[in-house]
Design goal:
CATH class of the largest domain: Alpha Beta
Mean pLDDT: 79
Bound molecules: adenosine-5'-diphosphate, magnesium ion
Number of domains: 3
CATH architecture of the largest domain: 2-Layer Sandwich
CATH topology of the largest domain: Ribosomal Protein S8, Chain: A, domain 1
Number of helices: 20
Distance between the termini: 103 Å
Radius of gyration: 33 Å
Helix content: 25-40%
Low-confidence stretches: 329-348, 363-420, 422-430
Structural class: alpha+beta
Length: 619
């Protein structure tokens, strides 16, 4: 007997409803979005009992044509897109043609609508998915939709509803998002007949913010704006003295749509880093306007998540806009600190206000300085540093003068004549050294000669240095201006995130980005020259050893080895005299310089006696 059956339309709609409509607030959201798409100038929302008894949304928009009435409540029917390409040209909030069908399948749904050029209105009812024949009626221009007894036919879902006030809280949030994104829309919200919000239309977002959050808060807001090739970003951000314990004060809109975006949230955290105490989150109202084909809004049924064609661009724009603003001189002027006494404890004194403003400016200056380039030159090795390296600064060996990179013919390229240098090292009297095969250093010593593997020695030095730094908790770490996104396997992602703390000790800032992507936000200065993305991949690979759970100590040690190997000069790298000198001078720092961390010898010693013996110079 066959067992697979095509589900009937009712069931299909109920399944779809489960995705889009999970509580009264989602009904309010979808209906309000439709009113906005219908170019309404006024919308009134009435809610009874947290939305479980009644949700009514009345707008003065363009209405539904009588021929479209039945279609409007059938699934995948929309007036907003035509074909798949249109998905990348979406300019409306809706486009899935799913909401009304979903809502009508789990409620008693009643619609009344009239188009502006028509004298007649129409009404239609759908009872838990059963569509009744529409008929003419008298009604004002626009659309009125009533949703009674939500989830009455899906008792499980109805049982999952929370208290009236919780559900109404969610409704308020949805209403707020639409109201903030559309200040020109006159919007009213009532609960059980009482007005909760009455927001007159305005051209200025700040008017609306004042109504929602009060004068004091609105006056403390800092206006921001930035234009880039990619798009426009503008809005208001709160002064750091106003913050929240959750991200609920963060409103991000993309082309009029409220969105949730981890990367942008991260950019906000970064922008306010050092200005807020841990656990506090900034309050922002930001609007991003991008070309429709630069974003994919068809990521999730609720349309709250989007995918950017270039995810780095908005991140970078947001971060640098806020940094620049915090730095700018007019910040002080534009900032009027809250004057309220209502909250005497948390309201800073005038002295503290001044202090805060100075802190803000100082902090921003410092931050920006260390940010001037992606890989900051702040810690870049300099030739004259090689002498001081001994005194505890990192043995950042590689003072390639004039910026010539290893292997390049540059000022560092040397002739055979320059290829040796006099050494007054701690290993005996003045000796001379030369590099051979761009790989070994041959050093004359008091009682013979030593051949040193340049990579092995440098690796050893790096390892010791790094290990000491880790033990002291003092690894120099450098922030990336634009964090790198790194795609990994699901397993590697979770393994890497599990080790966040350990990696932090090593100077790596690794953060969750969503999906199988992590963000590299900072890196150990020692690895300035390394391919950082590759380093992170290698580390993830190291963690991924099925069936083994190495101790934390082993893991740390392996990572130290790997990092020192990556940071060290390579075989085949030509060294200048100073570089050679610097490397050899650090030799004595190491307890066990004769072996690289992998155990290979770093040096071969040939004594004078052995040389003489080999050449038959006896006596
Ligand atoms: P979508 O918004 O994704 O198109 P919906 O199920 O929300 O899907 O709505 C279906 C269609 O019904 C819309 O495309 C629109 O043509 C019409 N419609 C819904 N609500 C309204 C409204 N308030 N005013 C005018 N037309 C509406
Ligand atoms: Mg819709």
């Amino acid at each position: 007997m066959s067992r697979i059956r095509q589900l009937d339309a009712h069931v299909v709609n109920q399944i779809a409803a489960g995705e889009v409509i999970d509580r009264p607030a989602s009904v309010v959201k979808e209906l309000l979005e439709n009113s906005v798409d219908a170019l309404a100038t006024r919308v009134e929302v009435d809610v009874a009992d947290g939305g479980s008894e009644l949700i009514r949304v009345v707008d003065d928009g363009e209405g539904v044509h009588p021929d479209d009435l039945l279609l409007s409540v059938s699934s995948h029917a929309t007036s907003k897109i035509d074909n798949a390409d249109d998905l990348f040209r979406v300019r409306t909030l809706g486009f899935r043609g799913e909401a009304l069908a979903s809502i009508a399948s789990v409620s008693r749904f009643h619609m009344r609508t009239r188009q502006p050029d028509s004298d007649t209105g129409y009404e239609m009812e759908v009872r838990q998915g059963d569509v009744q024949q529409p008929h003419a009626c008298g009604c004002p221009v626009g659309t009125s939709i009533e949703v009674h007894q939500l989830f009455a036919n899906t008792p499980v879902r109805r049982k999952f509803l929370k208290t009236t006030s919780t559900e109404f809280g969610h409704i308020t949030e949805q209403f707020t998002r639409i109201a903030l994104a559309n200040p020109r829309l006159h919007a009213v919200l009532r609960h059980n007949g009482k007005i909760v919000y009455e927001l007159p239309a305005t051209d200025a977002l700040i008017d609306r913010l004042r109504l929602f959050y009060g004068r004091e808060m609105a006056e403390g807001l800092i206006q921001v704006e930035s234009e880039s090739e990619g798009g426009r970003l503008w809005g208001y951000v709160a002064h750091p003295s106003h913050s929240k314990s959750t991200r609920k004060g963060q409103y991000l809109f993309l082309n009029g749509r409220w969105i949730q975006d981890r990367a942008l949230q991260h950019a906000l955290t970064e922008a306010y880093r050092g200005l807020l105490m841990t656990g506090r989150h900034p309050i922002v109202f930001l609007f991003l306007e991008l070309a429709a084909d630069d974003v994919d809004v068809n990521v999730h049924p609720t349309k709250n998540e989007v995918r950017f064609r270039d995810s780095q661009q908005p991140y970078r724009q947001l971060l640098s806009m806020l940094r620049t603003k915090f730095l700018s001189a007019d910040l002080d002027g534009s900032m009027s600190m809250p004057e309220s006494n209502a909250n005497a404890q948390s309201s800073p004194t005038p002295e503290r206000k001044l202090e805060l403003q100075h802190e803000l400016a100082d902090w921003a200056k410092g931050e920006l300085a260390s940010w001037t380039s992606d890989r900051s030159p702040v810690f870049a090795p300099q030739a004259e540093q090689s002498a001081t390296t001994l005194a505890g600064t990192p043995p950042q060996f590689a003072p390639f003068p004039g910026g010539a990179q290893p292997g390049e013919a540059g000022p560092a390229a040397h002739t055979a004549d320059e290829a040796h240098t006099d050494l007054a090292g701690p290993h005996g009297p003045a000796g001379r050294a030369m590099q051979i095969h761009d790989c070994y250093l041959v050093v004359e010593t008091g009682d013979g000669m030593t051949v040193i593997d340049q990579h092995a020695l440098h690796e050893r030095i790096m390892y010791e240095h790094l290990r000491n730094r880790v033990l002291e908790g003092a690894v120099e770490s450098q922030k990336l201006l634009v964090p790198e996104t790194i795609d990994l396997s699901a397993r590697e992602t979770s393994l890497l995130l599990e080790q966040q703390e350990l990696l932090q000790q090593l100077g790596f800032g690794i953060e969750e980005f969503g999906g199988n992507t992590v963000l590299l936000t900072s890196y150990p200065v020692l690895l300035s020259r390394a391919d950082l993305v590759q380093v992170v991949r290698d580390m993830a690979e190291q963690f991924d050893r099925p069936g083994q759970t190495p101790t934390r100590r082993d893991t740390l040690d392996e990572l130290l080895h790997m990092m020192s190997c990556k940071a060290a000069i390579k075989a085949g790298q030509r060294l200048s005299n100073e570089e050679m000198e610097s490397l050899l001078a650090q030799r004595h720092l190491i307890d066990d310089a004769h072996h690289c961390p992998h155990g290979r010898p770093t040096a071969l010693v040939l004594s004078r006696a052995e040389l003489d013996r080999q050449f038959g110079r006896l006596g």
